[in-house]
Amino acid sequence: MADARKATTNSISAAPSFQTEVLVRFADCDPAGIVFYPRFLEMFNNLVEDWCNTGLNFSFDDIVVQRGWGLPTVHLETDFILPCRMGEVLTAKLFVRRVGRSSIQADIVLSGPDQTDRVRGKVVLVLTDRREHRAIAFPDALRHRILTFVVPDECTRKLKED
Amino acid sequence: MADARKATTNSISAAPSFQTEVLVRFADCDPAGIVFYPRFLEMFNNLVEDWCNTGLNFSFDDIVVQRGWGLPTVHLETDFILPCRMGEVLTAKLFVRRVGRSSIQADIVLSGPDQTDRVRGKVVLVLTDRREHRAIAFPDALRHRILTFVVPDECTRKLKED
Amino acid sequence: MADARKATTNSISAAPSFQTEVLVRFADCDPAGIVFYPRFLEMFNNLVEDWCNTGLNFSFDDIVVQRGWGLPTVHLETDFILPCRMGEVLTAKLFVRRVGRSSIQADIVLSGPDQTDRVRGKVVLVLTDRREHRAIAFPDALRHRILTFVVPDECTRKLKED
Amino acid sequence: MADARKATTNSISAAPSFQTEVLVRFADCDPAGIVFYPRFLEMFNNLVEDWCNTGLNFSFDDIVVQRGWGLPTVHLETDFILPCRMGEVLTAKLFVRRVGRSSIQADIVLSGPDQTDRVRGKVVLVLTDRREHRAIAFPDALRHRILTFVVPDECTRKLKED
């Protein structure tokens, strides 16, 4: 599939995803002039926040403040492939991989204005009741909305072969 | 080895490591009252910085400003096991796993005052020349200092069995 | 002037200004559930960055990386009037008050979706040559662009009387 | 008192103060290689946090989490006099100037290893009940502890003349 590869450096760009743009700011950059890597994880968290607010209609304020719940990241894997520089506008994409009773496994890709992947990550999020310190099942309506973001099987297979 | 287990919840505490203490500050915590996870990665970076400065006698200022080099984190895996709260003093430990020509693979563990592991991570760091945008070999003297922090094989095996 | 007051709670909103919107994010908020105040100053810095990039066509990347200059904040005064909560979209406005040979005095106002001022600040910025550690005069073309953002005298007087 | 002046560039060093040391970290620095100014305000907040914890025996956790109170900064003035570089160990000092029913006015000075003042600030803190959204009087025992940090009048006068 050489042609397909040519058409898209970001191999999973055809999958259903939630997408935002992120300006790399002065505040994100370190003395080496590139994004300080913990700030990439803040970008990950902002993407999840935007997805909850906009994609799922389930705002962080609703989750954390109104309901006393949480959606902590319990696992994270990240490859920092290429540096990002001040002033670049990154495309941030979130792809849901798996939805459990109370957990979501998602892929996150930050790509540059030149379409190259800069950071690729996997996150596992868990819905929790903070007062009772335990995982809780996604309410049905929320689960249905989350499921619309799950990457179909053929995409997953294709990704594994990459 | 039930007794050994009892003696230490942090299973790799016997290995050679670089260790610091980290106070969980108000600035680290989010509206859920616990550490905002990108701040854990800042703690990881601070630990690597302290290790370079104190353990390796190779300061970040020397690396980044004086020499024009960098020591970016190119890969990261993290399990956020238990939340950390404001005011807790965490123990941060770094164990070197593998040393390549220009890369280091290290484990990082943040444990609580109750000796439970709170965050466990793996990082891969690469020494780079920022002007030439390429990895460079560790200078010999530096390599020797790094090697003194490598965890012996029996520890690695034990960890894999855990 | 009761009518005018009614029309605008933010008393300097009629003056020429550079304006952006800022979403208050989870990452900005502290265990008290409101914006952690150093993050307001990051919002200030982002506003100045956006103003330079968009309003002045003089990007931070151009200033800091390409030319080796800087535009540090040398003085800051801030009143934190009302707290800001996660999910609120703030309006951030910058008004230039005075332009010197190498310095700018500007007012910054962050107001809430309810039009109330939440944070009011004054900043003094100085253009510097980082290698020579000294202030430098604004290039003429830049000075002309900056001057288009200066608040006219009658606005200044009105503000002083408030 | 020319000799005394010579002996100390930091003119208020003789006054009663709460003092800590702050390492300037990679994480604090920007692409210009110096501390990003919002991070100075985080250092201010950390100093206030340490003062509450250690100097006043009134921890932020106690204030914010246990009691549902807050100690927000409502006013801030800062002069950024000289830049601070990665690896420098700063001395951070807090001097109480005035204690009201529910507010504290304090001066904060960050000085470098060369004893020069780098950042000088004034903060006004207010004790609040977060549920009732109102200022509350300092409990008596706390007020007594705060008063031990107030700078005597002669120091204030001397400072005003500087």
Description:
The structure is a homotetramer of 162-residue chains. With 162 residues, the first copy, chain A, is α+β, with helices and mostly antiparallel strands. The first copy, chain A, contains 5 helices and 8 strands. A 5-stranded antiparallel β-sheet of chain A has the order 1-4-5-6-3. Chain A has a 3-stranded antiparallel β-sheet with strand order 2-7-8. In chain A, a hairpin with a 4-residue loop joins strand 7 and strand 8. Chain A is globular and about 45 Å long. The N terminus and C terminus of chain A are likely disordered. Chains in contact: A-B, A-C, A-D, B-C, B-D, C-D. At the A-D interface, loops of A face loops of D.
